[in-house]
Fold this sequence. Notes:
The chain has 132 residues and is mainly alpha-helical. The protein has helices at 29-37, 41-60, 69-76, 80-93, 108-124; strands at residues 96-99, 102-105. It has five helices and two strands. Helix 1 (29-37) packs across helix 2.
Amino acid sequence: MKVSEAPKTSTSIIVRSAANARISQSKNPFLELMRRVFRKEEVALKAVKFVTMIEERQKSGKPLRVEEWEEIMNELGMNRSSFYSMRNKLLGAGMIAIRNGEYRLSGAFSKDLVDMARWWWTAVLGNDPDTL
């Protein structure tokens, strides 16, 4: 499938092979990850803040609700279309999910990356999956 044919719910991410470009080597890994999803630095910073809001509210037992969109937009300093565009990229990437009207952190992003890595390691490189 070509990128142009991907469903609207899909999200592109920049992958870098250089060891010095690894997210885990960054001074701010979370921001570095968001820079790979969002083209504009300003949106990457707001995405970090939004995901952090979701995480904090989830941990506190009072999950961030979808109907709080106006307050979220105001706190992030975004207009409606920019907010929903950012949110939809995070949903499409599998970083967040909506369950019962609540934003939640999601493991789908991690599972997709692991699946890609395992496939490349075994199918393309011909390695034993246990050596990954």
